[in-house]
Amino acid sequence: MAESPPLSGAKTGFIGGGNMAEAIIKGMLAGGTAAETILVAEPLQARRQQLADNYHVPTTAENSDVARACQTVILAVKPQQAASVCSSLERDITGEHLLVSIMAGVSCSTLEGFFSTPPRIVRVMPNTPALVLSAATATAAGRNATAEDLAAVETIFSLVGTCYRVDEKLMDAVTGLSGSGPAYVLTFIEALADGGVKNGIPREVALNLALQTVLGTAKLLAETGEHPGSLRDKVTSPGGTTIAGLHALEKGSFRATVMNAVEAATARSKELGK
């Protein structure tokens, strides 16, 4: 399929066509949004072609095309690009626009400062499980955003997982917890599998056992609604194997290390916003 031209009828635009933008597009299409009402600005021609071929959405190389064609614009670029991208759109983005940012660390007030007539801004932090429509997402409204704006954004992001509304002051902590959290979980799965390999289990079997253990435990926790500690106690017999393993985790400061990881990522999110 040839690269599609911009459509003036497009209602939701993306500036940046990376993995997270693709995940959101996938969710929107699965939720019934018509492909022709989405417009994606992406500088790489090969990536534009890929998105057009896979999802039949119109694409463009120009960010300004999105700003001119769409009332809702989703900023899906790296936080380091915030100043250059927003400054280039200063004349095209107005108070009539709803600007949705998924950039880590960049506050609504910072974004508002790039425009002479600030748009309505909603800040969003999804995570990579959006690629399989299982994201954990938080939203926070800027000073000009309305309740209707926030509801509209939450409708979009609920198509790729679960959505939670928080005060903007908590968004850096959200970034440290759920935004970066998949990397912590993946590291744990890898380590769990390595433990199996160290004790003689073939690599492929160990990895599959570790993956299903994490997947099944998360499902059990979600479906029972019990506290994690309560469920843990049910599989921790006195003098048994599980308490021996938990003791080793405690000696290694497992919980404190995870908490430190969230704190470090939160601090980095704050740095990115400066």
First and last CA, distance: 42 Å
Q: Strand portion, in percent?
A: 5-15%
The CATH C-level name of the largest domain is Alpha Beta
Mean pLDDT: 93
The radius of gyration computed from the alpha-carbon positions, rounded to a whole number of angstroms, is 21 Å
Helical coverage, percent range:
40-55%
The helix/strand class is: alpha/beta
Q: Helix and strand succession?
A: EHEHEHEHEHEEHEHHHHHH
What's the number of domains? 2
Sheet of most strands: 8 strands, mixed
Descriptive terms for the model:
274 residues; alpha/beta; Rossmann fold; ProC C-terminal domain-like fold; eight-stranded mixed beta sheet; 12 helices; 13% strand; elongated; disordered N terminus
Summarize the structure.
Helix content is 51%, strand content 13%.
Write the layout of secondary structure elements.
Blueprint lengths: L11 E4 L3 H12 L7 E4 L3 H11 L3 E2 L2 H7 L2 E4 L6 H7 L9 E4 L6 H5 L7 E6 L9 E7 L5 H11 L3 E5 L5 H9 L1 H18 L4 H22 L3 H7 L6 H11 L2 H19 L2
Parallel strand pairs: 1-2, 1-4, 2-3, 4-5, 5-6, 7-8
Antiparallel strand pairs: 6-7
